[in-house]
Amino acid sequence: MRLQAGEDVKEGFTRMRLAVGCAMWSHRSWQGRFLAHPLPPNERLRAYASWCDAVEGNTTFYATPTRETVATWARQTGEDFRFLAKLPKIITHDRCLTDVDEALGGFLDAIEPLGTRAHAVWIQLPGAFGPVDVPLLARFLSRLPDGHRYAVEVRHPEFFASPRAASLLEAALRTAGAEWIPFDTTAFFASPPTSDAERDAWSKKPRVPSRSVALTDRPIVRYLGRDDTEQTVAGWRPWVDVVVGWLREGRSPTMFIHTPDNADAPGLARRFHDDVRARLPELDALPEPIPAQPLTLF
């Protein structure tokens, strides 16, 4: 298994840690609520990192950032912060994991300034990538360099409907020490959309069954709720049980909370953490948020 030494180990003992985060670290609707406004772009990640201790690196899917840009991300976050860095689409979608050495090398070099903050390299595969393609994935994983964790997200329905297909993928991932990232959209698709944001997500998000099997000691979950907070919370209750179980097994999971509009995502991520910590008081607390508005004397 490819591990980064020292993560989640402090003063000689293993920490009980659940990291939580969102799909991005800046959103217009967060200004003045979760993040101060106005706030320069190069300070927004620092403010976000006081709310959540993980973030999805979706922007790297569209273009590999420069090392200088990545270095600014590292400077705004502590060493325990977790980035889930998504491989560029030229590797996963355009070239389908073939003839990608140059692009892969450039990406891994670019994220090097993150150090241990690069919690995992996220390999999100297109919906057309099915069980027949697992040998291709296995070859790709076998050639990846040590020094990073790797996590794979698949969307082909057969991986969720066929136990044989799931076992085939699990075997390839276990051999490489890689995790399977579930994107749980079952709560979202439980009832018809009621807002513009939900209707937009309805046509774009994958509709696959939930899956809660961890392959490594660092499971990663992406969860999509609704714009209605109580529906979102009700939908994640099974995940509270799963995450509590993982923590008791000695695993250190990361949970990403999404809603169609993501307007309240940082607060919801912290609420999920609170729900788990209510069951496990020994769980490490999240950082205290930086106030979004100046403190007053009255």
Structural class assignment = alpha/beta
Order of helices and strands: EEEHEHEHHEHEHHEEHEHEH
CATH class: Alpha Beta
Strand line-up of the largest beta sheet: 8-7-6-5-4-3-11-10-9
Throw out a few tags for this protein.
TIM Barrel; alpha/beta; 10 helices; globular; UPF0759_sf; disordered N terminus; 298 residues; DUF72; two-stranded antiparallel ribbon
Task: Describe this protein's structure.
The longest helix is centred in the last third of the chain and has 20 residues, at 229-248. The chain has helices at 41-48, 67-75, 89-94, 101-110, 134-142, 158-161, 163-176, 196-202, 229-248, 265-279; strands spanning 9-10, 13-14, 19-22, 54-57, 82-86, 118-124, 150-153, 179-180, 183-184, 220-224, 254-258. Helix 8 links the parallel strand 9 (183-184) and strand 10. The chain is α/β, with parallel strands linked by helices. Helix 5 (134-142) runs parallel beside helix 7 and helix 9 packs across helix 10. It is built from 10 helices and 11 strands. The strands form 2 sheets. It has a 9-stranded parallel beta sheet with strand order 8-7-6-5-4-3-11-10-9. It has a single domain (9-279), classed as TIM Barrel (Alpha-Beta Barrel).
Write a brief caption for the model.
With 298 residues, the chain is of the alpha/beta class.
